[in-house]
Amino acid sequence: MKVFPLITLLLSTGTSLFSQNLVGFRESEIKKYMQENRKDMNIDNTKNSKFRYLKYSDNLDNQTILFFLKKNSVCYSERMICDFSVKDEKLREFDKLYKETGENIWIDSHDGKDYIITIKERQWSFIVTIEPEK
What is the value of pTM for the model shown? Predict the structure, then answer.
């Protein structure tokens, strides 16, 4: 009987890790976090001459996360491209973790800063953006 609460805790913790706001983290911290907490995501070493970023994709290609980095290797914005099959789960997760401020808009407050989380639908996917409030 004691196993059920533990399993419930682990499952609920696992799903909320996807939307972890890593804006402000250093590149090395992001890599460590992803390696320890998101074993379902694989780093993609694709390079881009215009932007410096880390790119992770899941094994099913349902989710891709881009961490945009400044020259000093600190994340200034996070973008997730997701298949519609995970949208309902993400909406429930955001409602649980963040304060909703409008349709498909939430705010995350920590370390004295506010971060805006937005969802925009595209034809084949939806995009989640996390960035500091301006």
Answer: 0.81
